[in-house]
DNA sequence: AACAGACTCAACCGCGGGACA
DNA sequence: CTGTCCCGCGGTTGAGTCTGT
């Protein structure tokens, strides 16, 4: 049976609300209270659908709404909450009094995405300084377009002393997962339960969300504390377990071992910290911090199960024949031809698989790279990860460019990243404005190819890993088999 | 000055789930 | 147990505005 419409649509007004309609709605709710949205328009004399009335009230007319721009504190809170709760805007809004889910959603989709683009990055050589602050580049971080002025003016004139009815504010749950050092350490058993039951998952994440807003320690951003958590990230709610893989005991100190020491690749940490300290207490720029340990071959069969995920299928799409065609097209679209003969050289594929995800498990980054590309790609992946949402990213170095490609978003999103990466490749110390301009202009390219979504579906198996957070990154090394996990300190958000 | 397109954000849409008969 | 109503949520759209060329 088809669903009945929420209201009789014929003859109802749509689109922008007028001041008169706002006044009618506000007066009616002041007199009668919220609720009964279906019957409200008729009773109030509005030619609007009940849903539209509700939306207008919730998002605009309520008297307790904050007016004005998102503050820095709110901005940081949104970042942290999103890392934990994902796109559950209503929950996030519940932690930000006076802000609506719609407002936060819009803010995230515009401001924060832009913010991430100005993310300070680490150098390829693991040196001290960030390579480039995109925020200093032309166009970066610059507000363009929009209707803020008029909108703000309207907001200041509309919505007066109307009462507020019940609203779905989420009460802060008791904190139970946090240790005194402010790092969140989960009991593996609880973690298991949370992975299995959706309810547990929601509760635990909300608890973490509340705690994240309470913490002031530099450890704020840490969500993982145990290898058991990583197991669940990797294996999800599956019955399979990595138990027996022989995870070395790291304790909960957060002290991590540099994968550089084991793998001989580019240092993951920036070099700002001697001795492979955690970096979680460092106040300057974002850093990747290794967390994982070497995997020994005794449990390779289980490891192979892990690697036999749909990751394999995805890899094939990305890197095998079809994938190469795709790369070819991609590069041509970007006008990148690298080699003198107009072609480009296929580099030997490395053995690193990289993936990461936003909170609640949407994988946001997947790729693999050669060992010597690892450091930069990790940075790239971390950036993609911090961009959050459902974006997937595949990074690779070609001709000095690191292309980041979205698996889920449309081509324009991918090209923005690619252009952004190209910008990074521009020698800034030379002040070559022309090259910079060319690189930045690539950001203007837009494509709409939704079919890509259908051709490259995300493996369901990788979805909904409860402890995946935008602050974390996992790398799976095939030979020798090893899994590294990285924690991005919360300072990564402090731009 | 005109234009293209980037950007914001209010509003719409479809769906899921709870309540209830 | 089933069907319906209603609410609320998250994703998406597109009008309006601004900026760069």
TrEMBL record:
<dbReference type="Pfam" id="PF00249">
    <property type="entry name" value="Myb_DNA-binding"/>
</dbReference>
<feature type="domain" description="Myb-like">
    <location>
        <begin position="9"/>
        <end position="61"/>
    </location>
</feature>
<feature type="domain" description="HTH myb-type">
    <location>
        <begin position="9"/>
        <end position="61"/>
    </location>
</feature>
<feature type="domain" description="HTH myb-type">
    <location>
        <begin position="62"/>
        <end position="116"/>
    </location>
</feature>
<feature type="region of interest" description="Disordered">
    <location>
        <begin position="251"/>
        <end position="284"/>
    </location>
</feature>
<dbReference type="InterPro" id="IPR009057">
    <property type="entry name" value="Homeodomain-like_sf"/>
</dbReference>
<keyword id="KW-0805">Transcription regulation</keyword>
<protein>
    <submittedName>
        <fullName>A-type R2R3 Myb protein</fullName>
    </submittedName>
</protein>
<feature type="region of interest" description="Disordered">
    <location>
        <begin position="138"/>
        <end position="169"/>
    </location>
</feature>
<keyword id="KW-0804">Transcription</keyword>
<dbReference type="GO" id="GO:0005634">
    <property type="term" value="C:nucleus"/>
</dbReference>
<dbReference type="InterPro" id="IPR001005">
    <property type="entry name" value="SANT/Myb"/>
</dbReference>
<keyword id="KW-0238">DNA-binding</keyword>
<feature type="domain" description="Myb-like">
    <location>
        <begin position="62"/>
        <end position="112"/>
    </location>
</feature>
<dbReference type="InterPro" id="IPR017930">
    <property type="entry name" value="Myb_dom"/>
</dbReference>
<keyword id="KW-0539">Nucleus</keyword>
<dbReference type="InterPro" id="IPR015495">
    <property type="entry name" value="Myb_TF_plants"/>
</dbReference>
<dbReference type="GO" id="GO:0003677">
    <property type="term" value="F:DNA binding"/>
</dbReference>
